[in-house]
């Protein structure tokens, strides 16, 4: 029985699979992102992330342990000197899988697997993202938002124009509201008679 044996063999023998994952992990460390199938990327993520965690501690023992998996002196050098410093504060989740569609020949689902800390575009998006705030409805006689917020010099002219328009529009709107409120309500009987006459 295969209880709790969930890992994907990828249609390969154990030696072929470990050699392929070692090669892919080396490529990922050297190039920071690689394009592959989704199944291989998921298997690679499970394989490479413990090695990246091990690389945070730069000792001879951890170097030998990682080298036993990767078998590349160049990859080990980059991993322990450059990558380990970038991922030092990250508590796991060093890789990201981005799906890219399906391959034409066999319709296999393709993706890009990359190191999270090396995608500058994603990092910029996170830093510049603004939070939305709700505004309460404007009450009569309350201060305008332009008066409350200190405005940059370039936008002062625009704010002044908006204030002038608001000063023109608000009194007219208030007068109309007062007129509508002051008008007496017409009896419903008169409305029903008019409706009957139109129907005839």
Notes on the structure:
- The protein contains 8 helices and 3 strands; from the N terminus they run αβαααββαααα.
- The protein has 200 residues and is mainly α.
- It has 2 domains: 14-121, Ribosomal protein L17 (50s Ribosomal Protein L17, Chain: A), CATH 3.90.1030.10; 142-183, no CATH class.
- It has a 3-stranded antiparallel beta sheet with strand order 1-3-2.
- Strand 2 and strand 3 (109-115) form a beta hairpin.
- Helix 1 (14-31) crosses helix 2, helix 1 (14-31) crosses helix 4 and helix 3 packs across helix 4 (73-86).
- The longest helix has 27 residues, at 156-182.
- The model has no long low-confidence stretch (mean pLDDT 84).
Write the layout of secondary structure elements.
Elements: H1 14-31, E1 33-37, H2 38-55, H3 60-70, H4 73-86, E2 95-102, E3 109-115, H5 120-128, H6 145-148, H7 156-182, H8 188-199
Antiparallel strand pairs: 1-3, 2-3
Helix pairs in contact: 1-2, 1-4, 3-4
Provide key terms for this protein.
about 200 residues, three-stranded antiparallel sheet, elongated, about 55% helix, 50s Ribosomal Protein L17, Chain: A
């Amino acid at each position: 029985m295969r209880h709790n044996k969930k890992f994907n063999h990828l249609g390969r023998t154990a030696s072929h699979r470990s050699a392929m994952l070692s090669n892919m992990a080396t490529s990922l460390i050297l190039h920071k992102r690689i394009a592959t199938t989704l199944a291989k990327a998921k298997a690679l993520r499970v394989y490479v992330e413990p090695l990246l965690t091990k690389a945070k501690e730069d000792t001879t023992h951890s170097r030998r342990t990682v080298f036993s998996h990767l078998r590349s002196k160049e990859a080990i050098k980059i991993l322990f000197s450059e990558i380990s410093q970038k991922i030092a504060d990250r508590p796991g989740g060093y890789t990201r899988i981005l799906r890219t569609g399906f391959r034409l020949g066999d319709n296999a689902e393709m993706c890009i697997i990359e190191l999270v800390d090396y995608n500058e575009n994603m990092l910029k998006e996170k830093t510049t993202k603004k939070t939305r705030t709700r505004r309460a409805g404007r009450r009569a006689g309350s201060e305008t938002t332009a008066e409350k917020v200190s405005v940059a010099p370039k936008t002062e002219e625009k704010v002044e124009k908006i204030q002038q328009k608001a000063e023109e529009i608000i009194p007219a709107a208030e007068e109309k509201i007062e007129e509508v409120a002051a008008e007496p309500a017409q009896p419903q009987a008169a409305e029903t008679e008019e409706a009957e006459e139109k129907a005839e």
